[in-house]
Every structure is written in structure tokens, then in C-alpha cells.
Design a protein that fits this description.
Layout (H helix, E strand, L loop, with lengths): L3 E4 L6 H12 L2 E4 H9 L4 H12 L5 H12 L8 E4 L5 H14 L5 E6 L2 H9 L1 E4 L5 E3 L20 E2 L6 H15 L1 H7 L4 E5 L3 H14 L2
Parallel strand pairs: 1-3, 1-4, 2-3, 4-8
Antiparallel strand pairs: 5-6, 5-7
Helix pairs in contact: 1-9, 2-3, 4-5, 6-7
Bound molecules: adenosine monophosphate.
């Protein structure tokens, strides 16, 4: 099995699991959120307007996302498989994704839903801190992965920062968007017999269950 789509509310752990899968299986991690944040860091009108959209927690217009994703899927480093994270976010995008896959000659693979209670998600989001240099992530609210020194990365000593959209208000918008727009994908992919459901609370358990799915589909 080569390609995985994670359907998950914000902070359900898809980033952490993706990192582990990349290390172990050589998959590439394609996060539309990361691609868009990268585009938003450009110091021009487009970059600035994108930055505003991302900070609000609302979805970016489809056409921008499709173009960016297609460009990424056409790169020739995806032979070992890829993890798609943050896309598709709604039924339109899921239907468009079928067309994009045809265009770029890639397979859908399996779809994994990471099911996590809302209160846990909110703490993970509001408490999340990221290293500005090596990208390591920490949390100051959950008691898991607390940085030893306030605001400083344990691994490389650089400053930690908080993503613009990692606040309570943005979490509410992102969670509601997930329930209203992304959740219907579960039914969409269930009907195609490609969906797996995981209770994602403890990262180690989640990783174990994801690996079972990978092995079953090999
Ligand atoms: P994420 O890192 O996946 O939480 O995404 C961060 C933000 O990027 C989202 O709140 C949206 O504004 C934007 N974004 C990421 N993926 C998509 C997508 N598939 N469609 C529209 N907007 C997206």
C-alpha cells in the first residue's frame, strides 16, 4: 500500500504520525496547510492575503489549493508513497481529487480517519509550540512534550513560536469547518471500501493501528 489520506480534525495527531511514517517507510508528507503557509510567507500581495485567510482558520479557495497540490504531486519523489494531510477538506475537493489523481497518474490508496475528542484537540491546539529552527513540536497544556525550558527547543535551543491560527477562536472555526465540511468524507470513502477508523488519543497506539492498516494493505 502506498498512499494514505488522513481525515482528521485539527490536532488529531496526523503531523506526528506522518513524521513517524516518513522515517519508517520513506513516505513523503504532503500537507496542503504547510504548502499554503509557505506560499503565504511570500512578501507580496498574494502572500499577504493568503496569510490573512490562514490566520482566520477559514478554508482557502479551492483553485489555489488544487494548483498547489497538483504541482506537488507532479514532483518525482513520490515512488515510495505519500501521506496526504489536510486534503481533501470537503466533498468537492474529494471529487476533484479523483480527477487530479487521474491527471498525475497516481492511486488513491487508503483513507484513515483519526477520531479524537474535542476537548483534547483544543488543548493540543492552544498549547502547541513549534521550534522556529528544527520544527520540533511541544505542548504547554497537555503535559505531554512540555519543553524543559519555557519557550526554548529541547533539541536545538532555538526559540519556540505559536502558529497564528493556534488560538481558541480559530480552533472553534476550524473544528466547526471540519464537522460541517470534512466529516461527510467519511461516508464518501466508506462507500468505496477504503476507509479505516482509529480512536486517536495516544500517539503510540495510533501509530500501531496505522501500521496494522499499512501491513494489511501491502
Ligand atoms: P492545516 O495545517 O491542515 O490545519 O491547515 C491550515 C489552514 O490551511 C487551514 O485552516 C486552511 O485555511 C488552509 N488549508 C489547508 N488545507 C486546505 C484545503 N484542502 N482546502 C482549503 N484550505 C486549506
Amino acid at each position: 500500500m502506498r498512499n494514505i489520506i488522513f481525515i482528521a480534525p485539527p490536532a488529531a495527531g496526523k503531523g506526528t504520525i506522518s513524521e513517524k511514517l516518513m522515517d519508517k517507510y520513506g513516505y513523503k508528507h504532503i500537507s496542503t496547510g504547510d504548502i499554503l503557509r509557505d506560499m503565504a510567507s511570500r512578501d507580496d500581495e498574494f502572500g499577504h492575503s493568503l496569510k490573512g485567510m490562514l490566520a482566520s482558520g477559514k478554508l482557502v479557495p479551492d483553485e489555489i489549493v488544487y494548483e498547489a497540490l497538483k504541482r506537488r504531486l507532479l514532483m518525482n519523489d513520490l515512488e515510495s508513497g505519500f501521506i496526504l494531510d489536510g486534503f481533501p477538506r470537503n466533498l468537492n475537493q474529494a471529487r476533484e481529487y479523483d480527477k487530479i489523481l487521474d491527471e498525475v497518474g497516481k492511486k488513491l490508496g487508503v483513507v484513515i480517519y483519526l477520531d479524537t475528542p474535542k476537548d483534547i484537540l483544543e488543548k493540543r491546539i492552544v498549547g502547541r509550540r513549534i521550534c522556529s529552527s528544527c520544527g520540533a513540536t511541544y505542548n504547554i497544556l497537555t503535559g505531554i512534550n512540555t519543553p524543559k525550558k519555557d519557550g526554548i527547543c529541547d533539541k536545538c535551543g532555538s526559540q519556540l513560536y505559536q502558529r497564528d491560527d493556534d488560538n481558541s477562536e480559530s480552533f472553534k472555526t476550524r473544528y466547526e469547518t471540519f464537522i460541517n465540511q470534512t466529516y461527510p468524507l467519511i461516508d464518501f470513502y466508506k462507500k468505496r471500501n477504503v476507509l479505516y477508523n482509529i480512536d486517536s488519543i495516544n500517539p503510540d497506539d495510533t501509530m500501531r493501528k496505522v501500521e496494522e492498516i499499512i501491513n494489511d494493505n501491502d
